Amino acid sequence: MKKRLNITIDEKLLEKIKQYAAKEETSISSLVEEHFEKLVSRKTGLPEGMSLVEYMRSLPKSKIEFPEDFDWKEEYYKAKAKKLGYEDLL
Fold it and tell me: Which GO biological process categories is it annotated with (predicted)?
């Protein structure tokens, strides 16, 4: 059984979606349903019931040693900023 779903999106995006659906000879509803199906059926590749953190801890130790106080989050954002050219803003 199908149910009705109301969503709100940007007008310009809606126009692009309408054009895409027409080009693909499908409906917007079908596009949304297919997208949601893909989202909920995605496989993470992790063993059943194991979180990403648990999986990472189960992997063999790296040969690279990091200090105990190494801030992974800060280093991640620094690398991301450098990649995007925003390192001067840090």
Answer: regulation of DNA-templated transcription
In the numeric block, which tokens belong to residue 69?
């106080």
HSE (side-chain half, CA atoms, 13 Å) at 44: 10
| Per-residue model confidence as pLDDT tens digits over 4-54 | 989 999 999 999 999 999 999 999 999 999 988 887 776 667 777 777 778
Tokens 């596009």 locate to 31
User: Are 55 and 46 a contacting pair, CB within 8 Å?
Assistant: yes
29-43 b/e with 16+ CB inside 10 Å = b? eeeeeeeeeeeeeee
